[in-house]
Amino acid sequence: MKKVIHIGLFGLGTVGKGVCELIAKNEELLLQKTGLLLKISKAVVKDKNKTRNLPFPISLSSDPDFILNDPKIDVVVELIGGKELPLKILEKSLTAGKAWVSANKALIAEKGEKVWPWFEKYPKKIGFEASVGAAMPIIALIQEGVAADRIHSIRAIINGTTNYILSEMHQTGISFEKALKEAQEKGFAELDSSFDVDGMDSAHKILILGQLAFHHRFNFSEVNIQGIRSVEGVDLKFANQLGFTIKLLGVAKEQEGQYAIHVYPALVKKDSPLAGVNGSYNAALVQGDFFGKTLIYGLGAGSHPTAVSVVGDICKIMRNLGSDDENRQAKTQSYLAQTYHFEEKPIQPFGEITAEHYIRIRVKDAVGVLAKIASIFSQNGMSMHQILQTEAESTENNQTESNLVDVVILTHLAKNSSIMAMMNQFHAIEIAQAPIKWFLIEKNL
Could you give the residue numbers annotated as active site? Predict the structure, then answer.
């Protein structure tokens, strides 16, 4: 017996339109698989008079109460972005007994102290798979697929724009600026792409994954966020020569009760599964006690991939809730304590993390320079694993003087804070003739 599900949609942009197209095209398939007939009956938009090429008619309004006060709406889908209005939509939807589905990573990551208590109270009425990885079901993997095991780490490529840029720089040798322009022309990057290239998008996503994996709530302000603007073509060439590539990673790790959740470009071994993730694809490598390592891979953005996760959440929620209101409440209450009851924990400061490091110092090709570098390493108790020296290459905006060379050093394990202090020493004695490049090395991926 089919059940009609009435959906109220906030936002008819790229993803919202994709949701409409998916429901229209797969109506019979969804009915066959779930017994649900999904009907988007209303939408709230900024401009209700704007021409839209939708697959079916929808009643439009610019007033949020058009949906929130309608008792016939079963599911509210929020796809407008931002934080303040979406938070009100979340609260009013759940208070009114409606289910809530969203792709809003910024809301969940930055407003966690207000959002997670609602998730705890109504765990079976919420869905946010689309907030991380679009059609790559990483949240389902963590909450269901490997729920029986303890997760120790997640290392993820979770921004298609930055991965496309780094892939193009690595494969074609073009500069960051050219790769970014190409990504914008092909629609992989927005005209203002700072949210992506500066790592903010990845930070939102890895924080959400870290909270789900470790079952704790963390403060977004404690996440160290580095983007890819500092990565130059010469670093990709050196990395390749040394058996690595460079990827922007969101990393969430637990070790001895400490939790590190950060975003940074890192050197990744070329034989790692993550090294082969190119273009706009995303991937996450999850490691646990019993299941070992699991890699999940897929399109991490886009209208249709994201729509798949949104509609999937709708179907899962409505199947779980069933049709009996009393039974819904009983099921919800029994599910509370084990799902979103998160205790707040601090994030381990980035400087306290121990890793191996790639350091590139541009110096004058003169007698004694390498000895000075080695001396500073020794003074700081650092050991070098490998060292290379080559003629410095010009960058897109800088013609290099002929008497400069690049010295590349791979270190043994050292604290990030110690590396940063040592780099300050190099600048203080004016050995470095350009900003020092420094990236972590992620091994055992």
Answer: 205
Question: Given this model, what pLDDT does residue 338 score?
Answer: 43
Q: What is the DSSP string of 243-272?
A: TEEEEEEEEEEEETTEEEEEEEEEEEETTS
Whether residue 207 contacts residue 261, with contact meaning beta carbons closer than 8 Å, is answered with yes
Place of tokens 């300050």: 424
Q: What is the CATH number of domain 138-299?
A: 3.30.360.10
Domain 3-132+302-334: assigned CATH number: 3.40.50.720
Name the 3-class secondary structure at 440: strand
Name 391's bridge partners: 405
Pick the CATH number of 351-442 from 2.30.110.10, 3.30.70.260, 3.30.230.10, 3.30.450.40: 3.30.70.260
The pTM assigned to this predicted structure is 0.93
CB 76 within 8 A of CB 98: yes
Whether residue 390 is predicted with pLDDT greater than 70 in this model: the reply is yes
Given this model, what pLDDT does residue 391 score? 79
The span from the CA of 43 to the CA of 58, in Å, is 7
In 3D, which of 201, 423, 382 has the Cα closest to residue 301? 201
Each residue's pLDDT tens digit, 404-429: 999 999 999 999 999 999 998 988 88
> Which region, left, alpha or beta, applies to residue 353 given φ > 0 means left and ψ of -120 to 50 means alpha?
beta
